[in-house]
What does this fold into?
Amino acid sequence: MTHQDDGARLSPSLYGDRRRLPWARPRPVLAFGWLEPGRPYRVGQCPVVVVAALERLEPVDRTRGFHACGFCEGAAAFAGAPHRTLDGRDLVLGSASLAVTVGGNRWVAPNLVLHYITAHGYLPPDEGVRGLGG
Ligand SMILES: [Zn+2]
It folds into this structure.
């Protein structure tokens, strides 16, 4: 997965064909949750309402393969990371993004962000946390 600092402007050119990325237009898209081992990330207790809000988002920019979690060993290191939602649904993460508009800014994270929050203690940026009800 390509690391991006939280709040960095995501460039469609990073991913090739911008026609595949309708969420990337027309205004800048800001990154959150693009984590990679060896890069520090913000750690903290993410409010459960934020996790629930992220779980309710419709995934965008689905891919055919999976990005594995670089922090895990075992199954999550080789394929999509399993995630049980707060309302009991089973998701396999790593093959789509989540997009949310907060304070006029469009923020996009890999849907692995749910796994990063629940399994690795990642805390999204304050703007995103507030915008998602936290
Ligand atoms: Zn993991």
About this structure: The chain has three helices and six strands.
